[in-house]
Amino acid sequence: MEEFNLNAILPQVKDCAIAAGRYFKQAAIERIDSKSSNSDLVTNVDKQTQQLIKLQLEKIAIPAEFIAEEQNNPELPMGYAWIVDPIDGTSNYIFHRHLSFVSIALAYQQQTVLACCYNPYRDDLFTAIKGQGAYLNGKQLHMETRPLEQSLLAIGTAPYDKTIAERNFECLCGLFKASLDLRRSGSCVADLCYLAANEHNAFYEACVSLWDYAAASLIVKEAGGEVHTNHDYLKLGKTYIMAGNSANFVNLKAICCRYLGD
Known about the structure:
The protein is built from seven helices and 14 strands. It is an alpha+beta fold. Strand 6 and strand 7 form a beta hairpin. It starts with 5 loop residues before the first helix and ends with a helix.
């Protein structure tokens, strides 16, 4: 498999993410549908934004599969693949909460090698190339180290699978007791990116999809953080996710795994 110059590709991916974010920020919602549950929502703008991203990425001279939230997907290949969430935080978008992200990852051999996540409401552009650090608007990110008892935790409530609600909220209660406090944003991408930017110190959610974390998890790792899911490679389907820094991750993982049975 031919290797590509990721530094040459990144500016085009940045332009794509920014254009997509600016598009959905001003677009009009005309239709809202449910997918896997009544909490799993999709709008016409999600689909339109995804198509815009696909057309832009096709202009980049790299032979890659296109894996995205608002379509049926093949298995993730061992070669190159774009992994896209056109609007992470669709419920936020519908309810005008102004915290939604475009997320674009490039994977190779089922590992993320390039990441670009854009929040058009704050004009925050997060980028990373594997082995080259993580950046927010061009400034390199370095995660702080705080023990769990001094950490502000971002959490997700796994709204798409309410069959695990009791066990999940027991875990969240354990994390609340062990930490400084909890925060809920409604966007996995936001939680991971702003973890890398030190706006909180750890993150946990019991049920996320590949496109929710493929890009932003690389940003955390390249900023010096740790990320754990229920597999060591990128894979379609649901997984839990936990992320933190070198001072809190062991205790974070121990509490979460106590309830997950991992």
